[in-house]
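Please decode residue identities from the backbone states below.
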């Protein structure tokens, strides 16, 4: 096991200890998983989607949130080989543990993948993907009392998906930092380090995923995000980058719809299109 594994294990009990003793003087002081925040006192809705850059904000204690795609299409073309993948309703289920901690379960639902080379028949695979367990700890700014907010998230991806899964356990840390420039503009920068798995090579490798997102609110209901994401495969010394963009539509205080595209900036990166939703309960 490498150092990242032990760092992740050390992080989990640390954040659990914080969950047992909420910080004094915050708006959520005294609330917990079993003593939910009153609905009229809930914070503003801050989903992690639709981009890859995550939000540093957590779910209100005692409440639940569902984030996911209705449908996602991924396509790629490289050296004469092409692929097309449909993902049906992948979901992230979240629950607020304390005023600065939430627990998440990501479910990679049914996937249909087709691959083919020029003048060759298609190869088709389908099935359910892996399950990922995530724990987010906000470090500061969760109550929107300052312009900046930051969090750390540890995750473990469990290889439960058979042919459609990663093939082995993966894990990593995510650190997003958000800053409100004005009432209508905000930016989020993120650093992510993963112990990922290459199924074809049958070995783990380190993956570094930096990103930056800008969001603009045209009104209380309508917004737009633009994002640049990089991915560095340390084993192959290979960089890939994408530009991601799409509108966001809030319906009330607890629901948000989004549509987006992930467009390749470098050869080999996948092109993606999706329609999704966030619902807070």
């Amino acid at each position: 096991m490498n150092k990242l594994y032990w760092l992740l294990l050390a992080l989990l009990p640390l954040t659990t200890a914080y969950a047992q003793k909420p910080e004094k003087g915050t708006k959520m002081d005294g609330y917990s998983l079993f003593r939910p925040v009153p609905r009229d006192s809930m914070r503003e809705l801050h989903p992690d989607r639709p981009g890859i850059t995550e939000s540093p904000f957590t779910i209100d204690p005692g409440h639940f949130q569902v984030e996911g795609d209705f449908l996602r299409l991924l396509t790629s073309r490289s050296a004469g080989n092409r692929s097309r993948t449909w993902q049906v309703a992948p979901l992230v289920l979240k629950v607020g543990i304390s005023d600065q901690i939430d627990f998440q379960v990501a479910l990679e639902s049914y996937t249909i993948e087709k691959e083919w080379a020029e003048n060759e028949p298609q190869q088709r695979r389908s099935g359910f993907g892996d399950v990922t367990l995530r724990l987010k700890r906000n470090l500061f700014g969760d109550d929107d009392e300052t312009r900046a907010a930051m969090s750390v998230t540890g995750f473990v991806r469990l290889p439960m998906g058979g042919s459609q899964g990663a093939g082995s356990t993966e894990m990593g840390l995510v650190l997003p930092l958000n800053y409100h420039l004005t009432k209508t503009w905000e930016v989020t920068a993120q650093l992510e380090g993963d112990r990922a798995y290459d199924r074809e090579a049958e070995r783990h490798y380190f993956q570094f995923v930096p990103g930056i997102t800008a969001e603009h609110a045209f009104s209380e209901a309508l917004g737009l995000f633009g994002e640049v994401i990089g991915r560095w495969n340390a084993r192959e010394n290979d960089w890939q980058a994408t530009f991601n963009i799409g509108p966001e539509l809030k319906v009330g205080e607890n629901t948000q719809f989004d549509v987006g595209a992930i467009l390749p900036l470098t050869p080999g990166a996948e092109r993606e299109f999706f329609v999704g939703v966030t619902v807070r309960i």
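Observation: The domain at 3-41+50-280 is CATH 2.40.160.40 (Porin).
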